[in-house]
Amino acid sequence: MAKKSMKRKKRNYSGRTIRYYNLAPNLDRGHKEYLKLYLFKKGKMSRAGYLNWNKRMRPRVYKEVTIDWIRVDAPLEEINTKQKLLEFIYNNVGTGTFVVNGFGNAKTVTGVKPYPMCKVVIREMRGRFHGVIIKDWRLHRYKWFMQDV
Q1: Burial, 40: exposed, middle or buried (Cβ in 10 Å; 0-12, 13-18, 19+)?
Q2: For a tag site, which of 15, 85, 106, 148 has the least CB within 10 Å?
Q3: What are the structural domain ranges in the chain?
Q4: What is the pLDDT of residues 57-108, one digit of tens each?
Q5: Strand, helix or coil for residue 77
């Protein structure tokens, strides 16, 4: 017995655009004075934490963990170059290895998406701080960053 072919159902939204999220438009995007930054301090995993992993997974485990985090409202004038960004983090948090997280304008339910902007390593040597920004490939997306250089 042959199968009966049926006509495909037509979608009820054909011919018009779909609004997935009912969010108000962000009119002040790109004209900000302050930036919300989350600074995650990184450190080495403890021996006890390492031994909690399965012995087959231990060689593949990344041994860097988040120790603490802090939220900072950063004025754009104080973080628009690499040296100013390093000084701002040193003055607010201190020394250590930090992952600087910002927020993007993603189409999610909350309206924002956190993502890592850069990784900063700050050490104190001979009474002065010495800092390096690594993994900073995302900073070039900001028009306010490195505008004076």
Answers
A1: middle
A2: 15
A3: 36-141
A4: 999 999 999 988 999 998 988 888 888 999 999 998 889 999 999 887 777 7
A5: helix
Cα 73 to Cα 37, 77, 90, 126: the distances in Å are 6, 12, 15, 30
What is the tens place of the pLDDT at every residue in 11-41?
666 666 666 555 555 555 556 788 889 999 9
Report the distance separating Cα 22 and Cα 72, nearest Å.
29
Distance CA 94, CA 76 (A): 20
- Using the Cα atoms of residue 70, residue 75, residue 78 and residue 83 in order, give the sign of their dihedral: positive
Q: How far is CA 114 from CA 28, 39, 61, 110, in A?
A: 18, 12, 24, 11
Give kind and range of the element (H or E) at residue 98. strand 96-104
SS3 65: strand
Separation CA 73–CA 38 (nearest Å): 9
